[in-house]
Amino acid sequence: ATLNPVNVTIASGDTASVAADRFAIVFETTTLSAGDAIAANAVVYPNPVSGEEFFIELPNQEQTAITVYNSLGQLVHNSQTTSARNAISTINWNSGIYFVKLKSATSQQTIKLIVK
Questions:
Q1: Cα-flanking dihedrals φ and ψ of residue 66, to 5°?
Q2: CA atoms within 13 A on the CB side of 67
Q3: Looking at residue 39, what is its pLDDT?
Q4: Against a cut of 0.85, is the pTM above it?
Q5: Are 100 and 70 in contact, with CB atoms under 8 Å apart?
């Protein structure tokens, strides 16, 4: 978002300067995601993970980056895929909360994952 500073001068002798309808505040609906193609259709399971791997099913076979971070923000997995179904090993991961980021050329999504 870009902030635009505004200077306002009020002249007591100018009725337009102090008019109640001098300014208008306009609100716009904004989507805070890069896109919905992955977000609406990607499936991560099982969640929570109690075994040695979890799966990611993607809605299409476009090039997608899969990155996983632990709760400290450390990268624990990084791969690229065009497969619809992807298995990610959790063998050397500690129990805790992880964030799975899926990013393609047209969209991205971050999913919270719990590893037991």
A1: -115, 115
A2: 11
A3: 47
A4: no
A5: no
